[in-house]
Amino acid sequence: MRVHSPSNSQRVAGVFFTGVFLLAGGWLASQASYAASAESAVDTASESTTGHTSEGGVSTSPVADSAAGGPNSAAAGESLPVALSGLRNGNGMVHVAVFDDPGAFAAYDWDRALDIRSVSASDAGSVAFTGLGPGPFAISVHHDENGDGNFDMTGVYPLEGYGTSRATSAYDEPGFDEASVGPGDVAVQVFYIE
Q1: Angstrom distance (rounded) from CA 167 to CA 173
Q2: With left for phi above 0 and alpha for psi between -120 and 50, is residue 71 left, alpha or beta?
Q3: Which of residues 110 and 57 earns the better pLDDT score?
Q4: How far is CA 108 from each of CA 22, 56, 58, 172, 173, rounded to the nearest angstrom?
Q5: Domain extents in the chain
Q6: SS3 state of residue 3
Q7: Whole-angstrom Cα distance, residue 169 to residue 188?
Q8: pLDDT at 41 > cutoff 70
């Protein structure tokens, strides 16, 4: 039996996606801290204007915060609806990041993404970003099937789906210029190795 070793592009993809999702986990943790401090500020403001604290407050869920447009979302401008295709099931979450910085996109530094949305995979036919500038933008997607916040791997092979704007296969890793899109409808294919 002949054993095939992974190609360099497969190794690079494995290292790349491991780094991406380690950064994404840090970003999600910072969002929880951001939401908690925002809730405290809302409670304080509510107490000073009405004499009591608010009962609903701000959600501390990073998913709820990112779905509504977190601290990195732009305030005004163009919209970017992202149609997702190729999801193999409705399990877990789908995380979609929009980059306007070529360096952040190349490093898959989700902390420097222009905006990030996380939605249930069962509702992930399309994810809309609003309030963006004129672009260009590059999109990165991760289908976190088990919802654990990690990009799961077996050796150098991804176990979960991923995609990038203008990528044509699981092994296609377009740079920012190749992946760039402007405002308007964009389609991103999600790919799986296994």
Answers
A1: 6
A2: alpha
A3: 110
A4: 10, 35, 29, 15, 12
A5: 8-189
A6: coil
A7: 11
A8: no
Phi, psi (rounded to 5 degrees) for 40: -60, -40
CA-CA distance, 135 to 33, in Å (whole number)? 29
What percent of the chain clears pLDDT 70, i.e. is strictly above it?
60
Residue range 187-191: mean pLDDT, rounded? 96
Which of these, 59, 53, 52, lies nearest to 38 by C-alpha position? Answer: 59
* Residue type, position 175, single letter: G
- Above 70 in pLDDT, residue 13? no
Q: Give the mean model confidence (pLDDT) for residues 46-72.
A: 33
Task: Give 116's pLDDT tier (boundaries 50, 70, 90).
Answer: very high
Q: Is 194 exposed, middle or buried (0-12, 13-18, 19+ CB in 10 A)?
A: exposed
Q: Are 89 and 121 in contact (CB under 8 A)?
A: yes
